[in-house]
Amino acid sequence: QVQLVESGGGLVQPGGSLRLSCAASGFAFSLYAIKWYRQALGKDREWVAFFSSAGGTTNYADSVKGRFTISRDNVKKTVYLQMNSLKPEDTAVYYCNWGAYWGQGTQVTVSS
After folding, report:
1. Contact 108/88 with Cβ under 8 angstroms?
2. What was the pLDDT predicted at 53?
3. What are the tens digits of pLDDT across the range 13-72?
4. ∠ Cα 93 98 104 (to 5°)
5. CB neighbours of residue 69 within 10 Å
6. Is 31 exposed, middle or buried (0-12, 13-18, 19+ CB in 10 A)?
7. Residue 42 — left, alpha, or beta (φ > 0 → left; ψ -120 to 50 → alpha)?
8. Could you tell me which of 34, 40, 51 has the C-alpha nearest to residue 102?
9. For the chain, how far is it from start to end, CA to CA, in angstroms?
10. Is 82 helix (H, G, I), strand (E, B) or coil?
11. Rounded CA gap, 47 and 31, in Å?
């Protein structure tokens, strides 16, 4: 069955960095685009970043553009989200997404 498993979250100070990973299984990973979303406490889930299946097209929400980088390794069936210059407003549970499937999420907390 399809599984998406996020990891790499944690507590980091403002200005710090984290790299999230999403390990995928159960589908032809290399053929599909993968997205990252996040949901802060009390807020709606919002789209963060996108990586296409072919051609390496990426796109980012304005709020993270220039600070976050999405990448993927089709051999390892893993998508990454490198997050730099983190801000307190980046605090959220981060999810990877493929179609109707979601991972369990990983908590990112940015606080001093």
Report:
1. no
2. 82
3. 999 999 999 999 999 898 899 999 999 999 999 999 999 987 689 999 999 999 999 999
4. 35
5. 16
6. exposed
7. left
8. 34
9. 40
10. strand
11. 20
pLDDT exceeds 80 at position 73: yes
For residue 84, what pLDDT is reported?
98
- Specify the DSSP element, H or E, that contains 39: strand 34-39
Reduced to 3 states (helix: H, G, I; strand: E, B; else coil), residue 3 is strand
| 88 phi and psi angles, rounded to 5 deg | -55, -35
Residue 91, pLDDT above cutoff 90:
yes
Cβ atoms of residues 106 and 7 within 8 Å: yes
DSSP characters for 59-80? EE-TTTTTTEEEEEETTTTEEE
pLDDT at 30: 86
